[in-house]
Specification:
Blueprint lengths: L11 H16 L2 H7 L7 H23 L14 H21 L1 H4 L2 H8 L11 H11 L2 H9 L2 H8 L6 H11 L6 H13 L9 H12 L6 H6 L8
Length: 236
């Protein structure tokens, strides 16, 4: 429960807004959504799915508040029904903001569906160049089973070959390589600041580049093999 003493001395309108903000943080899962949009190896398709889920929740809450239903807003239950219209408008503003922010991404929804759920799209709904390969893919029971058992990237990497599905393969490579967030850039910059500190100001650019290459790679360095290639004591 929120600390009531935090809001002592506030006027009624500000107090109501504070209550609404509390519910926004707790029930709208804003922080939860933010966490879902972070982290490594995030595909654009899964990121957009999380955003769309949140938008559906927003529209639900907007309709409920317009009817005076505060089931998802416990701290507003004591307010008058006419106050709910104001907060329903706040939901509407958020819906509009999400629509505007993700408008460009939603324009490629059909292409994302072909990438993320290739077995669920209808062949007649996809561009002509994909239709034959989509039909071949959807009628292959072995591939369908592998799709259900593996991660999306592993499925494309191991079972959608360039020989059998050249167009779908290129399509998958395109969307698998898209940067859905700036997480990778932020992580790289953090490693840069750790590598080049005030105490290592004389670190040369080539050495810094090598350190960052190792630090940002998901492949472990084979120290044993690298050591064998070095001659630590040159012969005289």
């Amino acid at each position: 429960m929120p600390n009531k003493h935090r809001y002592e001395g506030l006027d009624e309108k500000t107090f109501k807004q504070a209550k609404f903000n509390i519910d926004s943080e707790n029930k709208w899962h804003l922080s939860e959504l933010n966490i879902k949009l972070q982290g490594p190896n995030q595909l654009v398709s899964s990121l957009l799915s999380n955003v769309k889920t949140f938008e559906v929740k927003l529209r639900l809450w907007q309709g409920q508040l317009e009817r005076g239903n505060t089931v998802h807003f416990p701290t507003l239950q004591e307010q008058k029904p006419d106050v709910m219209t104001e907060y329903a408008g706040e939901c509407a503003k958020l819906v509009q903001a999400f629509d505007e922010r993700f408008h460009d991404v939603k324009n490629i929804q059909r292409e994302l569906d072909m990438f993320a759920t290739p077995f669920n799209v209808h062949p007649s709904d996809v561009p002509d160049k994909f239709q034959m390969e989509i039909i071949e893919l959807q009628n292959n029971n072995e591939l369908k089973a592998k799709y259900n058992d593996l991660s999306l990237l592993d499925f494309y990497k191991l079972y959608v070959s360039a020989e059998d599905f050249p167009i779908l393969r290129r399509h998958a490579l395109k969307f698998a390589s898209l940067f859905g967030t700036t997480y990778g850039c932020e992580q790289f910059f953090s490693k840069l600041t750790l590598a080049k500190t005030l105490f290592r100001s004389r670190l040369t650019d080539p050495n810094l580049e090598n350190q960052l290459r190792v630090a940002s790679s998901s492949l472990p360095a084979d120290i044993r093999c690298l050591s064998k290639e070095k001659q630590f004591h040159p012969s005289h």
